[in-house]
Amino acid sequence: MRILILGLDGAGKTTILYRLQVGEVVTTIPTIGFNVEQVTYKNLKFQVWDLGGQTSIRPYWRCYYSNTDAVIYVVDSADKDRVGISKQELVSMLEEEELKNAILVILANKQDIPGCLSVTEVHRALGLEALRNRTFQIFKTSAVKGEVRLVEFIYRSDLINCDQKWILKTITIKWTLDDR
Questions:
Q1: CATH number of the structural domain spanning residue 21
Q2: CA–CA distance from 99 to each of 69, 133, 138, 154 (Å)?
Q3: Is 163 annotated to bind ligand?
Q4: Distances from the Cα of 46 to the Cαs of 1, 38, 118, 167, in angstroms?
Q5: Which Gene3D superfamilies does the entry link to (predicted)?
Q6: Is 112 annotated as a binding residue?
Q7: Of the candidates 70, 71, 93, 87, the residue with the CA atom closest to the CA atom of residue 122
Q8: Which position has the higher pLDDT, 136 or 52?
Q9: CA–CA gap between residue 127 and residue 120 (Å, rounded)
Q10: Which among 27, 118, 134, 164 is least buried, having the fewest CB atoms inside 10 angstroms?
Q11: Known binder of ligand: residue 108?
Q12: Percent of the chain with pLDDT over 90
């Protein structure tokens, strides 16, 4: 299973990747290029690619689209000035033929920051109501304060060589915000 984590620089992609992998917050630096890690959930193994989100790196995202089963698109809910740029990048990504069957999960991250956009405001700002022929889910998150648990995967093993090839149908990610 191949999953891409995409979004603008500073959105929290790398923090999310390592919360998924090791279950805790690790110190990160801006990603120049990519990080790739294997995340295991029960007996399923996922290859998760965290791609840098700087302006100079975004044009290269498309080089990683081939054979992608799901995209986790991370939005910095506290960065109101760049949500329009985030929308442009999301729209551009969704126009790519190689991602037409990929599941889309949008994380409205940094919900722990006062004054951030709500998940409803992020939904509206990204124009998600226009996504009619695409399976997607949006979640409010806090990568730093939240607890990441991969809760439910609905998968099929009867396709593509029948062995350990899994096709992701739905991803549900549960984040429990820490009230401390």
A1: 3.40.50.300
A2: 8, 13, 18, 19
A3: no
A4: 5, 6, 29, 11
A5: P-loop containing nucleotide triphosphate hydrolases
A6: yes
A7: 87
A8: 52
A9: 11
A10: 27
A11: no
A12: 46
* Rounded distance between C-alpha atoms, residue 65 and residue 34, angstroms: 13
31 among the known binding-site residues? yes
Residue 146 token pair: 């939240």
**3-26: pLDDT as tens digits:** 999 999 999 999 888 887 776 677
Q: Which amino acid is at 87?
A: K
Q: Which two tokens stand for residue 97?
A: 């033929």
Entry pTM: 0.82
Q: Of 125, 51, 124, which is closest to residue 93 (Cα–Cα)?
A: 51
The catalytic site residues sit at 54
Cβ burial of 38 (10 Å; 0-12, 13-18, 19+) is: exposed
Residue 138: closest CA among 114, 179, 173: 173
> Any known ligand binding at 7?
yes
The residue to which tokens 């044009």 are assigned: 59
Number of domains in the chain: 1
Domain that holds residue 7: 2-176
Alpha-carbon span 147 to 16, nearest angstrom:
10
